[in-house]
């Protein structure tokens, strides 16, 4: 019996010593040992970009950022009285352009909306500025009160006064998107009610005009354009003072030919490829100009 007790003590002694060591370590050990301690982590301050849209593409802030704005959305359907609404058409085209840009690579892309969400007119260029976008393109589809014979796309840049009465009418229609039955639903500053092109914005406006011209050039054969294809108007979404911006009316939503082109897979791809090429050339020129 004593022999068994001796053997047991020899076996259990190391176990007892190990247990005592673990207990002592937990009770008196320093941080990083045992479980009786608290780790303090210094968290970064809340980001100023919280709540902004996701940026797709390369994880490289040096790559240019393209902000794509699908016109209308949510409670604002835009043009169209039949099954096809402008808000759905513009979103489909915006997604097609995003996918093409990501496929080609070299740029980052963000969208003001990715679904049927309502975004106010003021918020759209504000989002682009907060994300420090390098280019802003707002996608729309026009409509007329006539017989639906009007056809073709138009590219608009900002001006303090529309380049024609037609351009002013377009701007008035789009700017009314923040109104319900003519009643303003959000407050507007003087800059929204009467957008003026300041001399300090000349560089941005020149860049916008260059990009607009590239869209028309690179889209030849891909989509028809009205004449004149390049116009200017006081669109609220183009008011950013430091982000080159254009508004592209892709066609007429009440024209059978335009709608067929813009809703077909081949038509959307042709649109996306043409505009993506214009963006590629624009940034290539900008890169050369910085050297």
Q: Mind explaining what this structure looks like?
A:
The chain is an alpha/beta fold. The protein has one domain (65-290): Aminopeptidase (3-Layer(aba) Sandwich), CATH 3.40.630.40. It is built from eight helices and eight strands, in the order H-E-H-E-H-E-E-H-E-E-H-H-E-E-H-H. It has helices spanning 2-28, 86-104, 123-130, 165-175, 190-193, 202-218, 256-263, 265-290; strands spanning 65-70, 108-111, 135-142, 153-158, 179-180, 183-184, 225-233, 245-252. The chain has a six-stranded mixed β-sheet with strand order 2-1-3-8-4-7, sandwiched between helices. Strands 5-6 form a two-stranded antiparallel ribbon. Helix 2 links the parallel strand 1 (65-70) and strand 2. The longest helix has 27 residues, at 2-28. The chain is globular, with a radius of gyration of 29 Å. The N and C termini lie far apart (93 Å).
């Amino acid at each position: 019996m004593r022999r068994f007790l001796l053997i047991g003590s020899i076996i259990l002694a190391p176990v007892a010593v190990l247990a005592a060591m673990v207990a002592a370590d937990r009770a008196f050990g320093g941080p990083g040992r045992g479980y009786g301690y608290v780790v303090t982590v210094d968290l970064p301050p809340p980001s100023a970009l919280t709540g902004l849209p996701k940026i797709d593409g390369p994880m490289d802030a040096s790559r240019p950022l393209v902000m794509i704005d699908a016109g209308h959305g949510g409670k604002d359907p835009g043009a169209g009285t039949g099954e096809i609404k402008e808000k759905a058409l513009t979103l489909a085209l915006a997604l097609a352009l995003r996918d093409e840009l990501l496929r080609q690579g070299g740029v980052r892309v963000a969208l003001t909306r990715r679904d049927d969400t309502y975004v106010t007119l003021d918020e759209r260029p504000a989002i682009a500025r907060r994300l420090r976008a390098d280019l802003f393109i707002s996608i729309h589809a026009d409509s007329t009160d006539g017989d639906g014979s009007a056809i073709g796309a138009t590219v608009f840049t900002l001006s303090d006064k529309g380049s024609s009465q037609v351009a002013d009418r377009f701007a008035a229609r789009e700017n009314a998107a923040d109104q319900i039955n003519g009643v303003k639903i959000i407050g507007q500053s003087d800059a929204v009610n009467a957008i003026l092109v300041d001399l300090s914005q000349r560089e941005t406006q020149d860049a916008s005009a260059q990009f607009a011209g590239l869209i028309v050039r690179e889209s030849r054969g891909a989509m028809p354009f009205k004449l004149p294809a390049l116009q200017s108007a006081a669109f609220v979404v183009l008011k950013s003072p430091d982000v080159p911006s254009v508004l592209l009316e892709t066609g007429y939503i009440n024209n059978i030919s335009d709608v067929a082109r813009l809703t077909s897979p081949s038509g959307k791809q042709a649109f996306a490829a043409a505009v993506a090429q214009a963006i590629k050339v624009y940034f290539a020129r900008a890169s050369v100009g910085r050297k």
